[in-house]
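just leaving the lab so this will be short. what follows is a protein written twice so to speak, once as letters and once as structure tokens for the fold. can you read through it and tell me how you think this chain folds. thanks a lot i owe you, the record is right below.

___
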Amino acid sequence: MAEQWQKGPNERTPLLAEQSHFTNQVQAKMKTKVKSCCQKYWSLNNLKATLPCIKWIPQYRLKHFQCDLIAGLTVGLTVIPQGLAYARIAELPPQYGLYSAFMGCFVYCFLGTSKDITLGPTAIMSLMTADFAHTPVKDDATYAILLTLVGGLIQLAMGLFKLGFLVNFISFPVINGFTSAAAITIAVSQIKNLLGLKGVRRDFIYCVYDTARKVPETKVWDLVMGLICMAILIILKQVKELKFRDNGSPSTKVKVARKVLWLVGTARNALIVIVAGGVTAALITVDIKVLSITGHLKPGLPEFKAPSFTLFIPDQNATLDASTVFSEIGSGFAIIPLIGLLETIAIGKAFARQNDYRIDANQELVAIGAANILSSFVSSYPVTGSFSRTAVNSQSGVRTPAAGIWTGALVLLALGVLTPLFYYIPDAALAAVIITAVLQMVDYQIVRTLWKIKKLDLIPLGVTFFLSFVLGIEYGIMAGIGVSLCLVLYPMARPDIDISSNKIAIFQPDQGLVFPGVEYLKDKITNEAILGDIPKSVVVDCTYIHSVDFSTIQMVKKLCEDFKKHDLVIVFANMTDQVLESVKTAEIKYFQHCSTVEQASHKIAEELQEMDQPTAGPHSNDLENSGGYDGPYHEIGDEKPEANSTTPQTSMSILV
């Protein structure tokens, strides 16, 4: 640089001009790039994708408001008793079920892409919370609230980085096995409340054992209350699903009566809880205290505050620091967000197909993540989409996500006004609500369907289902996902290979070839062609190979070298342009390619015929120069194929 500036002014001018021109080019490219990014990420379409409410708010009318109001209040009547019951599954005081039931409704209204989905506590998420957020302090929600915050952050990050596709790696048999096992686990865990038993352990096997051992301690009044509630709930569910056949148009009175029946059936959980609570209150006023009740709940709305990262244990006068708390929650930080995504996407897709609209999986992740983050500030445990309440929402005629505002408002009203009345709700009534809700999730018909369609899918289903009882729900689903992925990856490691062999062996893998299956294919070719009783030249038909990796290139190189050493010929055929370009880039010596298997067979026949010629002519080096074979020749069998003859392709067919 010093030498450049020692030159005269006239000599420096071209250099400065060149540097200035280069700087201007860089600035122009940067300006274009920034402008392109701004147009892409700050456009109206992108804003609509980020805030889906912008799409429907300008078109909102009175008819939408009426439908959303009815649907929102109906869902609210459903979520209040469910929230109280599901908090018991999460092993938290009942008010935490209501704390979890309103913030998600408000957030999803602005960020969600489905008009039907309603967020809040669910049976499965409550069970997972009990597994991962069980604290040493009774009725303490510190772990659950922290799990909500961190899980929401993970879900939000997954949505921003477009990782919604990960849910596609969880197969339907795994989902089905997990759902059925979770439903049975929840139902069994509630039998103790139905019978009025105490001191029953939470793990499934111990729960079954303790419940069976303590059956003689059953409280008859709790059992009677629970059975009556279950019977009424089942009857009301059938009333809701009644189908009427009309010859003509029904009268207004008939329509009103049917609407009342439907509303009673839809709000059956709320009705049962209200009636059972009223009966209990009446008995207590006459000093008959024979039922196990919910007891005192913390009145009022939850305090808006940041989640705590530490836990104080009064009995030990000790405080667990953040690292200890995080280590105790452990894999829950990964599984809870995944289960939340899985439930919401599955529900959203089902109702999107039913009502003819589309959802965005990545935006749903953003919505769930934001809902969980904000919910953690109001003492909520993890929330996700609820299938039962989403079904109620859809059947109530919801038109937009704004219905969630009315659902959340009703829950806030219940927290602010009705909390003292929850004292009288019987445990048996809540157990009846939970059991009748979750048993509908057990899908036993899937076994028959998979047996007819694909028996192999019964393996991940069975592994997930049975290990969920033995090891726990969280390990059951992880084992099921692992087995399912193994079934998907196994064909890559052991691809089916059609082998047609006579004097020339033709190998045709049935799918793309990447590193798990490379060694397998190489061994098959080597054992059949080089190490077999009669060495053969080979054609590798690459019709179904659409992508390759470094391991594939190394295999091609190794095969070409091995065949050269044994005076044999290997030719590859039917490679796609992309695959062929990748192989050519590696500059593999002795590599040969033909457009079709027939051309490859002719090429091998010609080269074998040239190998049989005893003298070398003036063009004896042409084959070597064209990438063919040099060195000593090896005779393939007793017969020599003619130069223009077609080599037979099928005398032996092996499917590996």
Remarks:
- The radius of gyration is 35 Å.
